[in-house]
Amino acid sequence: MRIYQSEDYQAMSRRAANIISAQVIYKPDCVLGLATGGTPVGTYKQLVEWYKKGDLSFAETRSVNLDEYLGLSPHHEQSYRYFMQDNLFDHIDIKPENTHVLNGLAKNPEAECAAYNKLIQDLGGIDLQLLGMGHNGHIAFNEPGDDFGLETHLVDLTESTIEANKRFFESRDEVPRHALSMGIKNIMNARRILIIVSGEEKAEIVKKAFTGPVTKDVPASVLQLHPDVTLVGDKAALHKLVEAGVQVCG
To answer: Is 67 a catalytic residue?
Structure first.
């Protein structure tokens, strides 16, 4: 695992965007696994900026997103499809038919999940998977206790995740209780993984995930077993790793 410590959120976002852009330049038709949430917003903003400057093209790139709320339409402002359009897809030259997000309105969620697994396989697998990490160590919507062998599946969101996401909705009651999510197996099958973390509130779980045992209680800890993982974080998020003696690059 390679660990890069950046001065602040902006520098972290720029470094992460550098890694993604290098993948796209090296393999223009690569398959990017993309994430949502607050942490990758700055990374996507930087990619858009480089695209607008003419430094980068996504014309041949394919993408698959990690997850989607069950019950939200693609046009709902809190759906992850809407998030991706608003923060990235609408501002670059990626072809709409090459962007893939789980269907939150699927009448048969299990069939939707099976079809998504096949889609990833048909695309040739994920070249680079971008991840954030929740306060309880979840990656995508794989919560503590979930089986590491799961592929895309229907998830019952935990109370802590619902609580963390309520800030995006008018009330806690409006937060969806279920989601469709890639499983740990999908994520671990990616050729490369890039995980980004920011803020003091992530410092303790980052330390648990990357210096503690591999355990279902901390889903992100499984990344210790992947052969090609890059962790990029700001000083606030990584300082407990540094204090624990973990070697990081500046």
So the answer is: yes
Residue (of 117, 132, 113) closest to 180 by Cα position: 113
Catalytic residue of the set 18, 103, 117, 136: 136
Beta strands 229-234; 2-6: pairing state: parallel
DSSP-derived 3-state class of residue 153: strand
pLDDT for 195 equals: 98
Q: Is residue 249 part of a domain?
A: no
d(CA 173, CA 166): 8
Q: Is residue 62 part of a domain?
A: yes
CATH number of the domain bearing residue 21: 3.40.50.1360
Residue 134 lies in a domain: yes
Q: Which domain holds residue 169?
A: 2-243
- Of the residues 98, 138, 153, 165, which is catalytic? 138
Q: What percent of the chain has pLDDT over 70?
A: 100
Nearest-angstrom CA–CA distance, 195 and 182:
15
- The pTM of the full predicted model, rounded to 2 decimals, is 0.95
Mean per-residue pLDDT for 178-189? 97
Q: Please check the confidence at residue 215 and state whether its pLDDT lies above 90.
A: yes
Angle of helix 235-243 versus helix 203-211 axis, rounded to 10: 50
pLDDT of residue 40 exceeding 90, the answer is: yes
Report the chain's terminal Cα–Cα distance, integer Å: 15
Domain membership flag for residue 77: yes
Count of structural domains, the chain: 1
Q: Which of 67, 127, 151, 234 is catalytic?
A: 67
Mean pLDDT of 145-151: 94
What is the chain's mean pLDDT, rounded?
Answer: 95
